[in-house]
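Quick one before lunch.
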Amino acid sequence: LGHPIIHFREVPSTNIEARKYAREGTAEGTVIVAEHQTAGRGRSGRSWFSSPEWAIQMSLILRPKVSPALAASITQIGAAAVAKALESLGLSPQIKWPNDVLLSEKKVCGILTEMSCELDHINHIVIGIGINVNTPHFPDDVASVATSVRIEKGETWNRKKLMAAVLNSFEPLYKEFLEGKEHPEYLRICRALSNLIGQHITYETTKGRLSAKAIDIDNIGRLIVQHSDGSTETLLSGEVHIGTQ
Ligand code: BTN
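Model of the biotin complex:
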């Protein structure tokens, strides 16, 4: 992809910035990175805790020539790329479908993918990746669910090197996806590192909260769950919790 990198000291959100650049025609592969986000965005309208100088906050502009229906895979390619990069540091990440990477069962990375498309055509996709790299500790309200590379490894890590490792892992995984490979590596990684497969989970639907057993991730990255009556359902995205409550 080449990855021209546009660096900011401070922006409201690298995803918002990347979407602006993408609308103006900026090339696929361009990365927007910021030291600090004043309005970092998480999924479901939540905010994303920014830790200036400590975290990686970046957004990658993509223009895949695939059906919009396949776009959900992009999040998983991102999660697989981050997990591979963390493995290269000697860590043992897990992937919480669809978009979190965990260390010691706590979140170290969140991904927010946003797409602009017409009926059967993707204009652009922005994949925003936030990784807690050198954050020494977290505020009390998130300390039980968030962690950083530094907390897990007991040492600080060079953010530029980790960012390069993520982008270098992303590229071949994305290429396989574009080529439509039957058994792509990113899905193998997402399945192998999944913390949900085999677990009883709960998730929100328009019919209220449901519980089921997560049994697999399908060929386009959807989570397959099985209900107690044996019927199966595929989830495209959403918030999933381990446990039956
Ligand atoms: C989530 O876990 O809810 C997703 C968090 C995504 C955070 C990243 S940080 C870089 C990019 N810019 C944003 O405003 N959000 C994403």
